[in-house]
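Collaborator request, handled under Task 6.
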Amino acid sequence: MKVEHFYAQRHGDTRGQLVALEEKKEIPFDIKRVYYIYDTLEGVRRGFHAHKTLKQLLICVHGSCKVLLDDGKEKEIVVLDKPYEGIFIQSNMWREMYDFSKDAVLLVLASEIYDEADYIRDYDKFLKYISDCDEA
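Structure tokens returned to the collaborator:
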């Protein structure tokens, strides 16, 4: 599995840093939904799902967290700990976010609005879905 890393262009001087994100430039999809996760308690894991079509960009804009990515064949853990670096998560990728620092804020840019029908929330069903996609 190849994790697709994202590196934002930073602009800064003695006053501080700025990162600008624009769809179809830095972000290779139309942004239809933006949300962020924060105040996650110690030991809590989030995610535990995959999407059939949705694509996402995850950036931990403050603090740090880990993301387990699983394509049904390989697993990889990515540490997000810089506000200008992130990962693109394509469809058909199981994800779990965990080990959030107390001050973590995980920003998510999504290619689609919320649609429960796009979620696969059961790992065994995810593996079957991936297998069926590979056979098609």
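The cover message to the collaborator said: "The mean pLDDT is 93. The longest strand covers residues 56-62. Please let us know whether this matches your experimental observations."
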